[in-house]
Write a structure and sequence with these properties.
2 copies of one chain form a homodimer. With about 300 residues, the first copy, chain A, is α+β, with helices and mostly antiparallel strands. Chain A folds into 2 domains: about 140 residues, PurM-like, N-terminal domain (60s Ribosomal Protein L30, Chain: A), CATH 3.30.1330.10; about 160 residues, PurM-like C-terminal domain (Phosphoribosyl-aminoimidazole Synthetase, Chain A, domain 2). In chain A, about 30% of the residues lie in helices and about 25% in strands. The first copy, chain A, has 10 helices and 13 strands. Chain A is globular. Chains A and B meet through strand 2, strand 3, helix 2, strand 4 and strand 5 of A and strand 2, strand 3, helix 2, strand 4 and strand 5 of B. Strand 2 of chain A pairs antiparallel with strand 3 of chain B, so a sheet runs across the interface.
Chain lengths: ~300, ~300
C-alpha cells in the first residue's frame, strides 16, 4: 500500500501527547498555532542537513534524527531560549520504513527530553535533505546576542572542544585508541539548552560553536566591533584530543573544527565570579580588532576560519 | 572571490528595512526574535519545493522565488492569518549569481507586498531544494480550521479553478490558444491573504487548494466528519479551461489539478448572505460521509484525489 504524505506523518512523527502548553494546534491543518505568553519573545531558527554534505550516506538514522534536532536546539540555546516547538521539512528519495522509524525515534526522543512539540512539517520526494525550524521562548529583551561583547569581558566555553572534530577524523580513517567519546560527540551532540537558560541572566554575548570556535567567536567580534585574545593552553581538551594533537601536530583542530555545539560566551569580570556551572575561561575581549592566540607565551594573530559552505 | 554563507545572505536577501513592528531581531544572529502582540496566536507553516518535482529545471528563477513564498503565504491565508515573517532554507548546487539575484527579486517583491520580513535562514550546498517557513498572526481562537465544517454549510471557493492545472498541461505541450493567463497562474500564483483575513469573521472551515479541490476539500470532510456534494456546473472556470475541457473531454481536471492556491471554505447559510467578496458557491456540506458530484443533474460519488507525494 502506498503511504500518502499524511499517513507518513501520522505514522512516524505524531507524538503521543502535546508536551507544552504553548501548542494550541499541532500537526494536521494548514498551519500550527502557537500561544506566546506575555513578557516573552519568540526565538526562531532554521538549519538544514544534506546527505553527503552534512552527513554520510550510511549515517545511523536514529543518530541523524537526534543530531538534526540538536543542531537547531543549539541555536536556541545560544540565545538563552527555552525550546517549545519544531517544524520538520523532509525531502526523501523514497519511503524506507526502517529508516523513517529509526530517524523519527532519534528525533522524537530528543524532542521529548526538552518537552518540544513537533507541530508541523512537509514531506516531499527528492534528494535526501532535512530542514528543521525550531522555536523557543526568551524573556523580552533578555536574549543573548552576538553583538553584546565588551572589551574586558572574559571569554568562556561550555564543555570540551574538538571532540566532534576528532570524531570526523576517526570516520575518515584516523586510528584513535579511544574513539567512543569522540564518535558519540560527532554523531549525537547535546544542545546546551540548560546552560543557555542559566547564562541569560549573566552573560553578555553568546554563540553556539557549530563551525569552529575561531569562526564562531569571529562572528561575536565582528558584530560587537571588538577583538579578542584566546589562551590556547586554557582550552578544555579531552584526553583523546590531546593525544591526537601530540600524534599529528594538528594543534589548531580544536579551534577550527566544527560540530561541537558547545556555547562560547562573554561575561564581565564581576559577573564571571557568580558562574556556578562547569565553564572554562579561554580568553578575553579586547578593544583591538581581530583574533589573537596566546600559545606557550607567544601571542600571534590567528585567522584560521571554520567550515563555510561555498567558500 | 568565494562568497561565504553570510555574505550570500547579506548580498542577495537582506531587505532594505524592517517591514513590520513584530520583528525585534532579523537576519544575523543564531535566532531571529519576534514580538507577538497580546490577543494573537502565531500561525506557522512550512513548504518545500524540489527541482524536477515541484518545478522544472529551467524554471524562471524570479517566478520561482515568488511562487515559493506564495505557496507558504497561501497556507497562512487559509487560516485567516496576517503574514509577518519568513525563514528561507536554500540548498544550492552552486553559486549562480544571476539565478540568486532573480530568485531573491521575485521572493522579496512578494514579501514587500505583504510587509513580510525575511528574518533568517540557512544556505547549504546540495541538490536544489527550497524550504520556507512562514509565520503569521491570527486573533486568538479565530483561526479558520479544517475541522469546523457543519452539515448545511455552503461550500465556496475564491477565484477560478483549474487554470494552474492548464498551465502545467501547456508546459507539457498542450496547444492552448490563449496560454497567457493559465501560465501566469501556474508560474506566479497569488496567495489569497486578503480573502482569508476577511473570511475569519464569517467562514467555518477553510483550506487552500494546493493539491486539487477534491483532495483538499477531502481534508475538510475527514477532519470535520462530514460529507459534501459539489455542483460541477457551478465551478468557476475561465474560458481557456472551458475550451480545454471541450477539446479533451477531461472534465475532472478543475477538481483534481493542483497549484491553484485559491481558498475553499464552508459557511453557514445565514452568514453566506453577508459575503461581499467575489466568491463562488460550488456545493453544500452534508451529514452523509464522502464526496459526491452533481453533473448535468446526476449525482455520483467522486473519489479522484489530487497529487500526493509517494502515493
Amino acid at each position: 500500500m502506498p503511504l500518502s504524505e499524511f499517513s507518513l506523518i501520522t505514522r512516524f512523527f505524531r507524538q503521543k501527547k502535546v508536551n507544552n502548553p504553548f501548542t494550541q494546534l499541532g500537526i494536521g491543518d494548514d498551519c500550527a498555532l502557537l500561544s506566546i505568553p506575555e513578557g516573552y519573545s519568540l526565538a526562531v531558527t532554521t538549519d538544514t542537513m544534506v546527505e553527503n554534505v552534512h552527513f554520510f550516506a550510511d549515517a545511523d538514522p536514529e543518530q541523524l534524527g537526534h543530531k538534526l534536532l540538536a543542531v537547531n536546539l543549539s541555536d536556541l540555546a545560544s540565545m538563552g531560549a527555552k525550546p517549545v516547538s519544531v517544524m520538520l521539512a523532509l525531502t526523501l528519495p523514497h519511503i524506507d520504513k526502517n529508516w523513517l522509524s529509526a530517524f523519527s525515534k532519534g528525533f522524537l526522543a530528543l524532542a521529548e527530553q526538552y518537552s518540544v512539540d513537533l507541530i508541523g512539517g512537509d514531506t516531499t520526494s527528492g534528494p535526501l535533505t532535512l530542514t528543521v525550524q525550531a522555536m523557543g521562548l526568551v524573556p523580552k529583551n533578555k536574549a543573548l546576542l552576538r553583538s553584546a561583547a565588551k572589551p574586558g569581558d572574559f571569554i568562556y566555553v561550555t564543555g570540551f572542544l574538538g571532540d566532534a572534530g576528532l570524531g570526523l577524523k576517526i570516520k575518515q580513517g584516523y586510528p584513535c585508541k579511544k574513539p567512543h567519546l569522540a564518535l558519540e560527540r560527532f554523531n549525537k551532540p547535546n544542545p546546551q539548552v540548560a546552560a543557555g537558560m542559566e547564562l541569560i541572566e549573566v552573560a553578555a554575548a553568546c554563540i553556539d560553536i557549530s563551525d569552529g570556535l575561531a569562526s564562531d567567536l569571529g562572528h561575536i567580534l565582528e558584530q560587537s566591533s571588538v577583538g579578542a585574545c584566546l589562551d590556547w593552553d586554557a582550552l578544555p581538551l579531552s584526553g583523546s584530543v590531546v593525544d591526537y594533537i601530540n600524534e599529528t601536530g594538528d594543534w589548531t583542530m580544536p579551534l577550527t573544527a566544527g560540530d561541537d555545539y558547545e556555547l562560547c560566551f562573554t561575561i564581565s569580570e564581576d559577573k564571571a565570579l557568580t558562574l556556578t556551572g562547569s565553564y572554562t575561561k579561554i580568553g578575553v575581549i579586547e578593544e583591538s580588532l581581530g583574533l589573537r592566540l596566546s600559545k606557550a607565551g607567544i601571542i600571534q594573530p590567528f585567522s584560521n576560519r571554520g567550515y563555510e559552505h561555498f567558500s
